[in-house]
């Protein structure tokens, strides 16, 4: 997309977004259900293209949002997790501040304690220099890039079988929760049903009461201060913006919470590599970014990774964001989920 002013309005700030890089120094492969090809080694080239684009924008991004799954789980069994992470992080060296989100592939490679001490912990760039106060274990924080604008990073694997010690409360909550909804021996296999119940798989996770309480406080304050809040998370939370198998376990709880706050205008996620978009009845824009990992080499897929969203001072700011994303997708010839209504997507198993 073009940069600079839109309809003569100077942007207040700009930022870049990239989702599901899933880099690994291995040959191409397929997703869990063998329906989609994955270009593990080439994903670093697409990140490079994104950086090149961001660096040549007339108005440079103020920050980058990395929406999780930065390296692939294959690195773990090859004992190359640290090396792969270093390779990707080198590509971010020319970036402005990068806000990292944690996805399931972060936890395939590292446990929670390791991540909290790693370069993927960007709470130092939060407004308070720290995150959600609950024992310091929940990776959630917020920052304000400009007056009356706030971004909140959420931890979708707070209650999870991934990354938590087997003795932890959260791990055992997750096991009990999953087994109550999924009778498969392999909990990465969705339950034998159709619809929203498919989300009860091990590669998803949920939000604890502590995190939801913390978010409630952040959003109430944002309401009072008449801020516009964008929430960032690895897992989507609106069924209209993703295939059901990629939804957060207790998406309905979080969705109800944010719909009760006038400050929330946008929710951005990754995980579903096909992407998606939905505007809910409260006017909240739910945007799921397409994944880098399934973008073929040499294809015109740059819009998946390099667009810069402009938040202007105009009243229609967030509406503009949605239009930009969908228009960019259409330009590349890739059809977004919202434009192929009724199609059943099975591409996201073990996203
Ligand atoms: Zn994921």
From TrEMBL:
Enzymatic reactions: CDP-choline + H2O = phosphocholine + CMP + 2 H(+); ADP-D-ribose + H2O = D-ribose 5-phosphate + AMP + 2 H(+); CDP-glycerol + H2O = sn-glycerol 3-phosphate + CMP + 2 H(+)
Keywords, ordered alphabetically: Hydrolase, Metal-binding, Zinc
Cofactor(s) needed by this chain: Mg(2+)
Record domain Calcineurin-like phosphoesterase: where: 14-274
Enzyme class: hydrolase
Coiled coil: none
Presence of keyword Membrane: no
Pfam family, one: Metallophos
E.C. number(s) listed in UniProt: 3.6.1.13, 3.6.1.16, 3.6.1.53
Metal-binding recorded as keyword: yes
Molecular function via GO: ADP-ribose diphosphatase activity; CDP-glycerol diphosphatase activity; metal ion binding
Record-linked Gene3D superfamilies: 3.60.21.10
Source taxon at top rank: Eukaryota
Complex formation: Monomer.
Family: Belongs to the ADPRibase-Mn family.
Protein name according to UniProt: Manganese-dependent ADP-ribose/CDP-alcohol diphosphatase
């Amino acid at each position: 997309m073009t940069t600079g002013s839109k309809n003569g309005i100077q942007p207040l700030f700009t930022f870049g977004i990239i989702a599901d890089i899933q880099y690994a120094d291995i040959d191409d492969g397929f997703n869990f259900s063998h329906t989609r090809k994955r270009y593990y080694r080439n994903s670093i080239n697409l990140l490079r293209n994104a950086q090149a684009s961001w660096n040549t924008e007339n108005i440079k991004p103020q920050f980058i949002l990395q929406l999780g799954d930065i390296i692939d789980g294959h690195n773990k069994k090859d004992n190359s997790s640290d090396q792969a992470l270093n390779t990707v992080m080198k590509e971010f060296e020319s970036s402005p501040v990068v806000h990292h989100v944690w996805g399931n592939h972060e936890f395939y490679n590292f446990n929670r304690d390791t991540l909290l001490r790693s370069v993927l912990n960007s709470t130092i760039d939060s407004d308070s220099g720290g995150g959600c106060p609950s024992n310091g274990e929940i990776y959630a924080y917020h920052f304000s890039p400009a007056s009356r604008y706030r971004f909140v990073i959420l931890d979708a694997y707070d209650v999870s079988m991934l990354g938590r010690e087997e003795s932890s409360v959260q791990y055992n909550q997750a096991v009990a929760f999953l087994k109550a909804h999924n009778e498969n021996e392999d909990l990465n296999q969705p339950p034998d049903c159709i619809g929203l119940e498919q989300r009860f798989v091990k590669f998803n996770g949920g939000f604890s009461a502590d995190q939801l309480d913390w978010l409630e406080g952040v959003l109430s304050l944002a309401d009072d201060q008449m801020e516009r809040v964008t929430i960032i998370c690895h897992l989507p939370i609106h069924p209209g913006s993703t295939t059901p198998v990629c939804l957060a376990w207790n998406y309905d709880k979080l969705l109800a919470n944010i719909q009760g706050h006038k400050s929330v205008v946008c929710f951005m996620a990754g995980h579903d590599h096909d992407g998606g978009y939905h505007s809910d009845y409260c006017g909240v824009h739910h945007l799921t970014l397409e994944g880098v990992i399934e973008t073929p080499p040499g294809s015109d897929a740059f819009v998946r990774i390099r667009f810069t969203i402009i938040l202007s001072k105009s009243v229609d700011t967030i509406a503009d964001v949605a239009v930009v994303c969908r228009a960019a997708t259409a330009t590349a010839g890739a059809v977004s989920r919202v434009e192929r209504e009724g199609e059943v997507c099975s591409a996201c198993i073990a996203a």
